Automatic annotation (TrEMBL):
Residues 72-354 form the AB hydrolase-1 domain. GO terms for cellular component: cytoplasm. It comes from the Bacteria. It comes from Sphingomonas paeninsulae. Homodimer. The lineage of its organism: Bacteria, Pseudomonadati, Pseudomonadota, Alphaproteobacteria, Sphingomonadales. Transfers an acetyl group from acetyl-CoA to L-homoserine, forming acetyl-L-homoserine. It is found in: Cytoplasm. It catalyses: L-homoserine + acetyl-CoA = O-acetyl-L-homoserine + CoA. Belongs to the AB hydrolase superfamily. MetX family. Substrate binds at residues 220, 350. It holds the Pfam family Abhydrolase_1. It is an enzyme of class 2 (transferase). This is Homoserine O-acetyltransferase.
Length: 371
């Protein structure tokens, strides 16, 4: 494969594998959708891997092919931006289990039919192992940094724990080393909404194209509430009603916040696969970095030479600051170099995706301290 085929926006590659999974199964071949930005230097020392969150994908700084909207981190990635593509070679791949070009439930099984719920159970560490296969394919041994927010932060932590010799720095934003019972409970509500949709049919909905869109929309609505802050919702919507010629009572979207959530659910179901949502939320719930290393989180980083930076937000109640502090304490106990900052922002968990200038300064300063 030539360089121009291998590097650039919206690439897909099929790797032979096999990829051994934590659940005992193997995946072969392994399909990976990915994008790259910037230029890899001759020493191959300027690569930054960005890991995406639950509902994200590889389209970080280019228009989404389905929605036409700007990339989900276009404000952060690009020439002269905090993750400067004039300086760094940026890679982002779609996680396995997803639906934007990487192996997942919608991929074809050996019998020629979609895997659906026959797709093997995956973990966060499995996602990272697949990303390592992609780096091998690209000829990159060591990353200048791995950067991720939310589920992407879980992957960044797993990268540093699984491949410590391949990661020089890890930037973990609004994330956690394991899910709480409350986190798992919210995900289970979403999964049950999908499976209760009569169009789910045990995951066998690919043939006729009639997907459990209503269930997936409800799952997205429930999750989206956890991404926001109460003060942010109050400021944006309060108890304001939808504009109508005559006031009526019923079960239409009477309140503006209802209309907003319904729009979020419907637009999400247009671009995401319901089975992928089941698999990825389950992977997040299984994630427990301490359990993977004998029950002590510090063991995950023992002897690591990776530099770490942890960032939390004061209005994030999904992964509150206490979760980041737990990771920092483990890093300190392991002797790994680590810095930590809690930023003030009104947007809740989604703050890492929105306009928070203080985050821009942290990201650019950590990735390029000599700049």
């Amino acid at each position: 494969m030539s360089e121009d085929q291998r590097f650039g926006p919206d690439r897909r590659v099929t790797l032979p594998g096999p990829l051994a999974l934590d659940g005992g199964a193997t995946l072969s071949p392994v399909e990976i959708g990915y994008e790259t930005y910037g230029t890899l230097n001759a020493a191959k020392s300027n690569a930054i891997f960005i890991t995406h969150a639950l509902t994200g994908d590889q389209h970080i700084a280019s228009p989404h092919p389905m929605t036409g909207k700007p990339g989900w981190w276009a404000r952060m990635v690009g020439p002269g931006k905090p993750i400067d593509t004039d300086r760094f070679f940026v890679i982002c791949s779609n996680v396995i289990g997803s639906c934007m070009g990487s192996s997942g439930p919608g991929s074809l099984a050996p019998d020629g039919a979609p895997f659906a719920m026959r797709f093997p159970v995956i973990t966060i560490r499995d996602m990272v192992r697949a990303q390592a296969l992609l780096l091998d394919h690209l000829g990159i041994d060591t990353l200048h940094a791995v950067v991720g927010g939310s589920m992407g932060g879980m992957q960044a932590l797993s990268w540093a724990a699984t491949f410590p010799d391949r990661v020089q720095a890890a930037l973990v934003i609004a994330s956690t080393a394991r899910h709480s019972a409350q986190n798992i409970a919210f995900h289970e509500v979403g999964r049950q909404a999908i499976m209760a949709d009569p169009n789910w049919r045990g995951g066998q909905y690919y043939a006729d194209g009639v997907s459990p869109a209503a269930g997936l929309a409800v799952a997205r609505m429930a999750a989206h509430i956890t991404y926001l802050s109460e003060s942010g919702l109050t400021e944006k919507f309060g108890r304001r009603l939808q504009a109508r010629e005559a006031k009526t009572f019923g079960f239409d979207a009477d309140f503006q916040v209802e209309s907003y959530l319904r729009h979020q659910g419907l637009s999400f179901s247009d671009r995401f696969d319901a089975n992928s949502y089941l698999y990825i939320t389950r992977a997040m719930d299984y994630f427990d970095l301490a359990e993977e290393h004998g029950g002590m989180l510090a063991n995950a980083f023992r002897g690591s030479k990776t530099r770490f930076c942890l960032v939390s937000f004061d209005t994030d109640w999904l992964y509150p600051t206490s979760e980041s502090r737990n990771v920092v304490h483990a890093l300190n106990a392991s002797g790994a170099p680590a810095s930590f900052v809690e930023l003030s922002a009104p947007f809740g968990h989604d703050s890492f995706l929105l306009d928070v200038p203080a985050l821009d300064r942290v990201v650019s300063g950590f990735l390029c301290p000599e700049c």
